[in-house]
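Repro case for the chain-ordering regression, as requested:
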Amino acid sequence: MKKLNIVLSGLLVASVGFAGENLMMKAKNAGLKPIPQSKLKLLKLVDDPANPMTDAKIELGKKLYFDPRLSKSGIISCNTCHNLGLGGVDGISAAIGHKWTANPHHLNSPTVYNSVLNSAQFWDGRAAHLEDQAQGPMQAAPEMASPAKSVANKVKSIPKYVNEFKKAYGENVKITFKLIADTIGVFERTLITPSRYDDFLNGHPNALTKTEKEGLNLFIDKGCASCHNNIGVGGTMQPFEVANKYKFENVGDFKGNKNGMVKTPTLRNIEETAPYFHNGMVWSLKEAVKDMGSIQLGLKINDEEAGKIATFLKALTGKKPNITYPQLPASTSKTQKPDMN
Amino acid sequence: MKKLNIVLSGLLVASVGFAGENLMMKAKNAGLKPIPQSKLKLLKLVDDPANPMTDAKIELGKKLYFDPRLSKSGIISCNTCHNLGLGGVDGISAAIGHKWTANPHHLNSPTVYNSVLNSAQFWDGRAAHLEDQAQGPMQAAPEMASPAKSVANKVKSIPKYVNEFKKAYGENVKITFKLIADTIGVFERTLITPSRYDDFLNGHPNALTKTEKEGLNLFIDKGCASCHNNIGVGGTMQPFEVANKYKFENVGDFKGNKNGMVKTPTLRNIEETAPYFHNGMVWSLKEAVKDMGSIQLGLKINDEEAGKIATFLKALTGKKPNITYPQLPASTSKTQKPDMN
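-- result from build under test --
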């Protein structure tokens, strides 16, 4: 009897393992791909050959990312809306910026984590790269409200920043608004969060629990992976309201890009990035899963299925890079004063 | 000749060294004290026996300090106005809080660094301890605008926070608003920034440059140290406008506590904490030094003297503790939603 038990449990393990491997193949066939384990492959994936990563650029980019003085008021940084302690978001429906102005289209701040994996940036995909994206909110009146020239002048007025730019780009560096945004982009490219889901796809069938595997299986079978795929588990431009209208379609005036396409959010760290959808009107992950079934796939995902899919999605919560909070160089008498108006 | 030079330079070194030691004694006699070098002495200085520091409390306090969800809007944390990357301040004249409301008394946010060394908290000294202080801005309508009960309920709705409270205070912990503020206080007690000035007072005469020593000497001779003394180089309640009126006295309605006393700011990291004075109307450190000579001491500090004193004051810029940006536990369906109104 003891022996039989051992044999049976051996068979069970083998069968779970086999199921795991089957599911792994199924996921790969559905277009799901892990964050590479190899550091070299990862670097190749996230680095921009036009402005290759160095420690000096990353560290400087981090400072700029956290520096509220880049805003007109001096109190709003990139990290205000893309908070690295809160899944890379602000946790509110529509972003709030300068003078407490809500995003005029009632748009929700997307996460900065893994955003380098997106094929385009912004909900309407209007920026091709993180570097282009970073230029937007700094200047936008309802966000950081700082003209490009102000941002560059502020940075140039701080000798320690100038030195760091020299260290990063050489003695003859010309500090421009574009280079500031590019440097922030370099830092953002490092914000990758590998998860148990990646371990699973990288060949560790036991990295996911039984329910998570069932959730992943449903995620593929229901068709979620037809938009949420590739390494980003999202991040590409897709049509919206394919089968049905979104119940909060009238909140804000966002209708996608000129072709009606919307950037599918990454589902990585989705557990941490409520509220959901472009206008941030849905707070429950399970509800969001059901809504997407109806809106995009024209099918009813029942409560149990949505629960399992949500359980799987929580396995996408990744390990965040360790970030030492930066000490920002002091302003000088030449630094433009904050303006709250 | 060569020998004479050597002898002379030896004498010069000895004389500078001697001057350094004399100045050290003079500084101590003027009531200036260093941050202790001994970790045990430092701990004794900053720890509160009523709620002794532990790693678990410090780490939890740090999370709460950085968590904007403690505010009504969900986007303002302690760190918004007391930014640990910016000398522990916001760098604006009057604090801006919920709904972009300026501090109604036009009060400037004091630094959190070394604030445990203050004999009282707030500009009017109305809080005796950091823990009492922390309760204020969280609830104040123009700051974080969050009723005490809301703050406690938000924290209690997040199981990972509950676990951390259990780890810090034991299984039977009752999470109250007071305990949340107390835990933030524990973290704030660790924010001590030793500087070259402390090295000097701790027996290293060459830790300050010649000009810095001249500045320190003037700082004592002019009488600055009569208010800015002890370990905090400030932080006690003192009369204001002793000799003359402050030129911006009409900006805001702050007139000190009921006895007209004002908390003297710490001068530690003063280089990083412009703008100066209770209503943040002066941006230049040199100008602030001159103003204080006139307002408090009834004497004219000339440009050269003010320059030397400012140079000395920059030697008070201290080494900040290394802070890993915290990963905050995710909200749940029970967590009260942010309210921007």
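Ordering looks correct now. Residues 33 and 231 of chain B are 5 Å apart (CA to CA).
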